[in-house]
Design goal:
alpha/beta; disordered C terminus; disordered N terminus; six-stranded mixed sheet
Length: 379
């Protein structure tokens, strides 16, 4: 299951579910069908699942809804345009001309953080894998940091992490040379402190997201390792407890036969790649970057100008992809609404302080990610 906010944490005007389409079947009453949707905090639609992340409204008449679009199977649905959405207010379709609906760059509401954690224990640095790891990590960070803040840390058997490229501070751009420092990394302790490194990485990414003043934050940890934990500085139970409570995704890449698939799946709970040798390292990193970027593309910030001028209203956004549809709703107060609305400038999200950082990836997504060493990624 992906993480969902408890209803007790929701602002009162958020309707945290996807509504059923207005075509009801049989003798089931609309109120009963909606109650079923609410009971499961899930979607009762036709093929698409929309999940509300946040929403806001402000004068002159701006309304913005931030949500995700997935298939029922959990596959992200990217590439939708403003024309692929229908907006209803109180069950009545709002014309596109009247609403001026537009998709706004989600960066105005959300910030994404990815921490790459690289195993540089003795078994790695003593092998011929380092050049391949550095090249693959460089390609990974180049792809991801175009849209996210990226940090790179190394670990071995030591108690502490080694920062190769910390998260940039507010207003700074992500550096480009941090990954190359892996080439000259000297192992301090040849053992493997995998569990301890993950716990510390969780603290690092939590701190980075806490410092962000953007209302919504999303985090991802990607760990590369060639072996299981040998240092025993932190137990598997302690690591699992820390990651179970985490509000970020964890992906894992395991190379070689020393780390078993069960351990790798336990660590890479958002997805993992297991490869036999260094020949597929670059494809493994590419697979993870595609999964992360693909998950980002399931988020949409839809902004429009409401025709309402007073009173309480419910807006329902319906996504349409071919024959597939799905809906999500939000209640707002149109008191003081009037003309001269510009949908390109959505209202600020005030609910961000009530929202803990969130995961990009739905937890019912397939865990194992398959790659081919001789070609591009195949999921």
């Amino acid at each position: 299951m992906y993480w969902a906010r408890p209803t007790s944490e929701l602002p009162r005007n958020l309707v945290y579910h996807e509504e059923a389409p207005r075509e009801y079947h049989g003798a089931m009453k609309p109120s009963l069908l909606v109650a079923i949707c609410l009971l499961g905090l899930t979607a009762c639609g036709s093929g698409l699942q929309l999940t509300l992340v946040d929403a806001a409204h402000a004068t002159p008449s701006n309304v913005a809804v931030f949500f995700t679009v997935d298939t029922r199977e959990g596959t992200p649905v990217p590439g939708l345009t403003a024309e692929d959405f229908r907006i209803y207010e109180d069950d009545s379709l709002v014309s596109v001309d009247e609403s001026q609906q537009t998709i706004v760059n989600q960066e105005v509401a959300a910030e994404h953080f990815t921490l790459l954690l690289v195993d540089m224990s003795g078994s790695v640095t003593a092998s011929d894998q380092v050049p391949a790891i550095v090249q693959a990590a460089q390609s990974f960070t180049a792809a991801v940091q175009a849209r996210q803040k990226v940090a790179v840390y190394a670990f071995d058997g030591s108690e502490e992490l080694f920062p190769m490229q910390p998260f940039p501070r507010h207003g700074e751009s992500t550096g480009a040379g941090g990954v190359t420092r892996l080439s000259s990394f000297r192992t301090r302790d040849p053992s493997t402190n995998l569990y301890g490194a993950l716990v510390q990485a969780a603290d690092v990414i939590d701190a980075a997201m806490a410092e962000s003043d953007t209302p919504l934050k999303f985090g991802t940890v990607v760990v590369f390792t060639d072996g299981s934990d040998r240092a025993a500085r932190v137990t598997a139970d302690a690591m699992n407890h820390r990651l179970d409570d985490a509000a970020f995704d964890v992906f894992a890449i395991g190379v070689g036969n020393e780390i078993d698939e069960a351990t790798l799946a336990d660590v890479g709970r958002s997805g993992y790649v297991q490869i036999g040798d260094a020949a597929a390292i670059e494809q493994a990193f590419e697979a993870i970057s595609q999964r992360i970027l693909g998950a980002m593309q399931r988020f949409y910030l839809l902004s429009y100008c409401s025709p309402a001028r007073a009173g309480q209203h419910e807006v329902t956004v319906e996504a349409v992809q071919g024959e597939l549809t799905g809906r999500v709703s939000y209640e707002f107060d149109a008191q003081g609404f009037g003309p001269r609305c510009d949908p390109a400038h959505p209202p600020a999200f005030q609910n961000g302080s009530h929202i803990r950082p969130q995961r990009l990836v739905r937890r019912n997504s397939p865990a194992r990610i398959e790659v081919r060493a001789s070609a591009h990624v195949g999921n």
